[in-house]
Specification:
The protein has 3 helices and 4 strands, in the order E-H-E-E-H-E-H. By secondary structure, it is of the alpha/beta class.
């Protein structure tokens, strides 16, 4: 069954996760840095959203409607977003 997955962070780890999962699932990648999405040019199935993941109110609205949320942001930022 194809899942809707959102990957928070498009750095080295987040982009690898998004690329791998996009082979079998619908993937959306979120990062504050739009340049991080350049690596997805060969993977047009990956949707992208430029957003500040430090904004917890925005984060909650972004993740609504997904089957799985994967955090691939720096440790301190990930810890703060767990509220």
């Amino acid at each position: 069954m194809k899942k809707k997955i959102i990957v928070l962070g498009a750095g080295l780890v987040g982009s690898a996760i998004a690329i791998d999962l996009s082979k079998q699932h619908g993937v959306t990648s979120v990062d504050i840095n739009a340049e991080a999405f350049a690596k997805f040019s060969k993977f047009p199935a990956i949707k992208t959203i430029q957003a500040d993941l430090g904004d917890t109110t925005k984060l909650k609205s972004l993740t609504n409607g997904f089957d799985l949320v994967i955090g691939a942001v720096p440790g301190a930022m990930g810890y703060e977003s767990c509220d």
